[in-house]
TrEMBL record:
Protein name: HD-GYP domain-containing protein
PANTHER family listed in its UniProt record: CYCLIC DI-GMP PHOSPHODIESTERASE PA4108, CYCLIC DI-GMP PHOSPHODIESTERASE PA4108-RELATED
PROSITE patterns in UniProt: HD_GYP (PS51832)
Record-linked Gene3D superfamilies: Hypothetical protein af1432
Domain HD-GYP: 107-303
Entries under CDD domains matching the protein: HDc (cd00077)
Organism for this UniProt entry: Roseburia lenta
InterPro entries: HD/PDEase_dom, HD_GYP_dom
Upper taxonomic lineage: Bacteria, Bacillati, Bacillota, Clostridia, Lachnospirales
Pfam families assigned: HD_5
Amino acid sequence: MRYVPAGQLQPGMVLGQGLHDASGRMLLAPNTSLTNENITYIKFLGTAGVYIDDEITRDIQVTDVVRPEVKSEAVSMIQQFFCRSAENVELDAEERLVRLVVENVVNDVLSNEAVMYNMVDIKTYNDYTYFHSMNTGVMAGILGVKMELPEDDLNDLVTAAFLHDVGKVLVLPDLVNATRKLTPAEEEEMKKHAWAGYEYLRKEYSFGDQVNETVYQHHEWYNGGGYPNHLKGRELLRNARILKAADVYDTMTSQRPGRKSYQPAEVIEYIMSRTGMEFDPKVVETMNAGFCIYPVGSEVVLSDGRHAIVVENHPGFVQRPTVRLLEDGKEINLRGDRNAYNITIVKLMI
Ligand SMILES: [Fe+2]
């Protein structure tokens, strides 16, 4: 299986993984042989790319830390939570559902500790906020496990990450999933979402102080340069410092109209360059060691111009995975092959 950006899809390519919307509904089934209409539909949904199955990559398994069905369950829970006022759902039942989904995600993360985070995520931009919240939760959970957080803190962290932007529904409901860039005035107004989310969770639910305050602090900076209260360093909850990095990472790598998206390697560079300023050094160190910037199944361009698919990542050597050349199916271990030392990866095709 390999990841193909929407712009490079061709009729006849076969889907390796199904495509779902935020409510878990299957839009296109696995094994669908793509038609021109399917490709137009995928682009219309704002999906950045999909996994396809072909001869050269059939044996490549794309495994993730959290099972696809658990992720799907998380996205649909988040969507329900954000739309509660419209649905009139009973609060207790909703809180139980959040706890259950968080537990499933944390269990998956704990049992796949050795697996590196596979960062190509299939999301549609019409439901951007829900997919983003789910991704941020998974990523925060992985960072939390790598930082050896006790399980209670881990549950609180993932809960806060899933719900961190819920205040947006209260501040500017029509702009929660806006597909255009916000005006400076709207951006300013939207900043109230951290406080609004905190107040909402505190008054309506009983997730506890750590969850509520982490939501309140998720836009604070390590040096006090963030908002709303300019807290810094240890004044910030550890969970908020982790959530901050996960949130920025997913926001910057996501493709959305009107906004530039960045390559994972560029975002890691950006985050590293702002260590001690915007981000907690310990969190950055963990992120740097544990996230693969070239996910298995993704296409890369090598410094000699050849295209290849990432087959395997080597922990601690994220820049030098094993790749399979598209031209002849030969594999190069960029970490171990002596005659490949001068070859680097120059681009990830996402
Ligand atoms: Fe936010």
